[in-house]
Amino acid sequence: MVQQTEAVTTLDVRPMLAAGEEPFDAILDAARAVPAGGVLEIVAPFEPAPLYAVLGGMGFAHRTEPLEGGAFAVRFTQTGITAAATVAEVAERSPAAAGIFGSHLMDLCCGGSLTLERSAQAHGVELAGLLAELREAAAR
Amino acid sequence: MSAYHLRSLTGLVLLAVALAAACTSQPRSAAARREEPWTASPADVSHGEAPVGTSTAPAPVDPRAPAPSASRLVTIRLETREAKLAIAPGVLYEAWTFDGRVPGPVVRVTEGDTVDFTLVNRAMMPHSMDFHAAQIAPSRAYVNVMPGDSIHYRWVPQVPGVFLYHCGTAPVAMHIANGMYGALIVDPARPLPPAREFVFVQSEFYTKPASDTAGAQQLDWEKLLGLAPDAIAFNGIANQYAEHPIRVMAGETIRLYVVDAGPNRVSAFHVVGAIFSKVYVDAVPAHAWEGVQTVDVPVGGGMIFETHLVEPGTYPFVTHAFADATKGAVGMFVAR
């Protein structure tokens, strides 16, 4: 069941799971269609924790809200922040990013042209944690 | 430097020393052997130089194959649940498991048995079971089981060999990388000759600090997609059989059931100082090779290896893809 308002797409996977279907591909398709700044809301009968990593890798931040009856609604916001994004791109897109780079003593070396992956490596910063921090701040 | 790499150095030191070492101890009688544990002290190969057997080392997983099935109806009940497990000395991992273990229990049946299978999901998300040994409609048997729910069905193993079983819920790479796999042996109706038997399941771990438990690790999905594992293990703990070598007798037939759970790395399985007298390709007894040095065990596949160690000494077994051995896919046999 897909509902779409201006910036939020809602996908309730409960009927698919109840029918014995695997909703993963439908979720990925919906996620790929979300524009920068857009939101994909997933409603599931359990906390869909595996999606945090998979959609996180595509640039999504997430916020989880338990619903009555044991279900969960998770809002995934497309921040565009991935390991392959450059430092300059991220700094431009997210005002909070500069402060986060500063807190890790990461400079805008080479005009910020390095990817987050290369820059984190060069500064000895743990990439997964940095990405999560940047995405969370960008989605706020 | 991470704990894995410290331990990997230990493994490499042990490997190097073992390669150079010549053991002079005499074989003991078969009667005395039965009383002894399966592990051998690693002290005789480390010369005290390598920090083996430290207090942070987890207890090793018993690699001995279970006994063949005694009944034609084999009941298997597995529970899926989360568990924090050691994957290397001092490294705890937030695993998803069958029965709280990584790998899950070794299951052993005989060709033509009826397997009565129940999967109970006590985890927080859907899981499932995919038996490579079965020929069955996945749409009926390998479906998602919701948290708190269960599935039950029967099947008959008709092809002998050693097979992978794993959770088949999407994304499969995540469920396997988190620990949801194991080995299933199907003995041929006419049994293989007696041998000393061990089971090794090779797999990788991709780690980052856990978000909710200080000091523990959890899956790093990006490293998984980038094929960059931190640790590679036989039976779920990197380097465990380098630190706790497996005791065998020189000259006896050793049969190794090797399964590669992956999710990504092929195992180029090799025993240093030995040649495989027989390799049952994809573990089918009818397809045996003879006189082979190294055989790839594909991801999602299994092979049965037979060899003997010609004289007393220490014989490492590895994946000969040596970056992977360096990350923990190395063990030792000590022949007496």
CATH superfamily of the largest domain in chain B: Cupredoxins -  blue copper proteins
Strand residues, percent of chain A: 15-25%
CATH class of the largest domain in chain B reads Mainly Beta
| Rg from Cα of chain A | 17 Å
Structural classification of chain A: alpha+beta
The tally of beta strands of chain A, per DSSP, is: 5
Write down the secondary-structure element order of chain B. Answer: HHHEEEEEHEEHEEEEHEHEEEEEEEEHE
Instruction: Provide the residue-averaged pLDDT of chain A.
Output: 90
Proportion in helices of chain A: 40-55%
User: Would you count the extended β strands of chain B for me?
Assistant: 21
Number of domains of chain A: 2
At CATH level 3, the topology of the largest domain in chain B is: Immunoglobulin-like
Average pLDDT reading of chain B: 88
The tally of structural domains of chain B comes to 2
Overall SS class of chain B: alpha+beta
List low-pLDDT spans of chain A.
none
